[in-house]
């Protein structure tokens, strides 16, 4: 801006000086020329008077640098003080013709004899002759040369103009450069008021926009930083623009402002490159013992792909459920197939008539046992399915766990006698809010396991005790125990320490799973402590109020 102001001021000064000097020189030239003609005219008057008095002899006595020519009415030169006669006829010259017609004449032309530009003045004498005086233009130019210092003045003024232009430009720009952008004030420069007003309005607008952007940024940061899912935003070259804490903690080496690709495996890089080709893609990756789904979507602005937004979702639970579903289907199919195969085989033998009468009763008993096993399996599956369903409504009542355990022990007496097991109940009456049928099945499953996996002449101790705001039910046996390597998995569905499905002990492998899900329904805690060949203790800790 300062350069432009300087240039404009300098050009204005140059223009003014140029125009002024041009006018001055033109005026001076015209003035000098007129003065020269006046001198020639005065001299012509003097010469004319002297010539009329003294005649041609006067001309011989003249000592003047100016050329004097005396011409008769026919244009013939009578006398010339600078050139010898004869001289060509003068009637063709402008000043001579004008003198003849109007009494005097002027002209400027290049002399044919001298070859210089000359000023001519001719005057008609009373006797009809013409007196002409002339002076070379060099005399006028010499007069003009007397004013040559004006050129030095011109260039001096031009220099001063440039300096003043520079100073004025700085002075004009200084108030603008010195403006306080935080608190702009025009001061004594009223011309800056529109600029100050506009700046103030613009500042308010920018401040409002910055506040809005800051608020949105805080909201966005609060949203992404509190996400369990990983969030990554990259540009078209894979440079990380933004990432939340979850993503930074999951991908080792990833930093904002650096390329993401070196920190990813090849399938994930391919996933992002597909997104850069305007395709929504998804890939699976295992990080920190979890399964993560990486979903990449292109970011489009002005109909062009400008980057990729990546969401990393923890799908470990989904994958586990899918695995459990597959295992559950396979286990149920296998568990049902075994008794069905037995029943089908017994029935086929009986239908063929090759079974002796005394064996028919035995086969019928086997068919009944296998059918009961199937019924127990189906009932357990139904119970687990109900416990898995969140929309199943249960009737909660006050349940005295001591009375419930007493009734269960009473119902299990035949089974204990058959296995030569002694069962005891200790503790006190404790009441909780619960679902009676589920609580009954949970404790029955624990007691049946304690009986089945016990040793001959073994014992089962059932205890109900109150502990502050909880009720603790403990089932302890003196049985074979559970190997340490299997203990973390015994509550999984269909899990058995003995992998053989023809285990003579029997069971569906769902008892402890029902205990686990029943405890979750009652917001209870389940713990297991077992020592091989020493026995097992399972503890249920119920809150008094759910």
Distance between the amino and carboxyl termini: 79 Å
Radius of gyration: 63 Å
pLDDT average, as an integer?
Answer: 78
Strand-residue proportion: 15-25%
SS-derived structural category: alpha+beta
Fraction of residues in helices? 40-55%
Low-confidence stretches: 500-505
User: What's the total count of β strands?
Assistant: 17
Anisotropy-based shape:
rod-shaped
Strand order of the largest sheet: 2-1-5-4-3
The CATH class of the largest domain is identified as Alpha Beta
Overall number of domains: 5
Q: Your description of this structure?
A:
Helices cover 49% and strands 22% of the residues. Helix 1 (2-54) crosses helix 4 (138-145) and helix 1 packs antiparallel against helix 5. The longest helix has 53 residues, at 2-54. The protein has 14 helices and 17 strands. The chain has five domains: 2-145, 2-Layer Sandwich (Beta-Lactamase); 184-221, no CATH class; 227-314, PAS domain (Beta-Lactamase, 2-Layer Sandwich); 319-385, Orthogonal Bundle (Helix Hairpins); 394-543, Histidine kinase-like ATPase, C-terminal domain (Heat Shock Protein 90). The radius of gyration is 63 Å and the shape is rod-shaped. With 546 residues, it is an alpha+beta fold. The strands form four sheets. The protein has a five-stranded antiparallel β-sheet with strand order 2-1-5-4-3. The protein has helices at residues 2-54, 57-60, 94-102, 138-145, 149-177, 193-225, 245-250, 266-276, 316-352, 357-388, 401-411, 413-418, 436-452, 511-521, and strands spanning 67-71, 77-80, 104-110, 117-124, 130-136, 230-235, 240-243, 281-287, 290-301, 304-314, 397-400, 422-427, 431-434, 459-467, 470-477, 525-531, 535-543.
């Amino acid at each position: 801006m300062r350069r432009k102001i300087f240039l404009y001021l300098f050009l204005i000064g140059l223009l003014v000086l140029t125009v002024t000097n041009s006018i001055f020189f033109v005026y001076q030239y015209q003035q000098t020329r007129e003065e020269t003609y006046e001198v020639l005219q005065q001299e012509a008057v003097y010469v004319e008077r002297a010539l009329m008095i003294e005649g041609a002899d006067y001309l011989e006595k003249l000592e003047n640098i100016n050329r004097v020519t005396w011409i008769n009415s026919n244009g013939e030169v009578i006398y010339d003080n600078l050139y010898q006669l004869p001289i060509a006829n003068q009637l063709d010259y402008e000043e001579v013709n004008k003198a003849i017609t109007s009494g005097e004449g002027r002209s400027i032309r290049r002399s044919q004899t001298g070859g210089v530009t000359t000023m001519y003045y001719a005057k008609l004498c009373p006797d009809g002759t013409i007196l002409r005086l002339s002076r070379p233009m060099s005399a006028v130019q010499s007069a003009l040369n007397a004013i040559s210092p004006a050129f030095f003045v011109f260039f001096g003024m031009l220099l001063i103009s440039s300096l003043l232009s520079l100073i004025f430009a700085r002075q004009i720009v200084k108030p603008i450069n010195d403006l306080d952008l935080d608190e702009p004030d025009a001061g004594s420069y009223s011309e800056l008021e529109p600029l100050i007003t506009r700046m103030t309005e613009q500042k308010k607008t920018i401040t409002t926009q910055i506040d809005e952007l800051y608020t949105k940024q805080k909201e966005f940061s609060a949203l992404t930083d509190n996400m369990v899912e990983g969030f990554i935003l990259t540009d078209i070259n894979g440079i990380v623009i933004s990432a939340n804490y979850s993503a930074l903690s999951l991908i080792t080496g990833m930093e904002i402002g650096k390329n993401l690709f070196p920190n990813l495996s090849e399938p994930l890089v391919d996933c992002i490159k597909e997104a850069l080709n305007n395709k929504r893609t998804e890939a699976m990756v295992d990080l920190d013992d979890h399964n993560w789904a990486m979903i990449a979507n292109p970011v489009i602005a002005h109909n062009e792909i400008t980057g990729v937004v990546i969401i990393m979702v923890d799908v470990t639970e989904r994958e586990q459920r899918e695995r459990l579903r597959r295992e559950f289907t396979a286990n149920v199919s296998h568990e049902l197939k075994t008794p069905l195969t037995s029943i089908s085989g017994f029935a086929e033998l009986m239908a063929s008539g090759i079974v002796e009468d005394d064996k028919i009763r035995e086969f019928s008993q086997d068919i009944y046992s296998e059918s009961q096993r199937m019924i127990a399996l189906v009932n357990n599956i139904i119970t687990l399915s109900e416990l898995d369903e969140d929309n199943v409504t249960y009737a909660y009542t006050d349940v005295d766990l001591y009375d419930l355990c007493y009734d269960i022990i009473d119902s299990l007496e035949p089974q204990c006698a058959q296995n030569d097991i002694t069962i005891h109940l200790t503790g006190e009456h404790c009441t909780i809010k619960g679902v009676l049928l589920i609580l009954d099945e949970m404790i029955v499953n624990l007691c049946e396991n304690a009986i089945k996996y016990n040793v001959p002449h073994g014992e089962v101790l059932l205890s109900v005790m109150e502990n502050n705001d909880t009720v603790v039910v403990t089932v302890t046996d003196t049985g074979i125990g559970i190997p340490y390597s299997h203990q973390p998995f015994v509550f999984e569905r269909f899990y058995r320490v003995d992998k053989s499905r023809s285990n003579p002990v029997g069971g569906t492998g769902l008892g402890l799973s029902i205990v686990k899900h029943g405890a979750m329904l009652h917001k209870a805690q389940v713990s297991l402590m077992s020592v091989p060949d020493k026995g097992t203790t399972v503890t249920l800790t119920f809150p008094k109020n759910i």
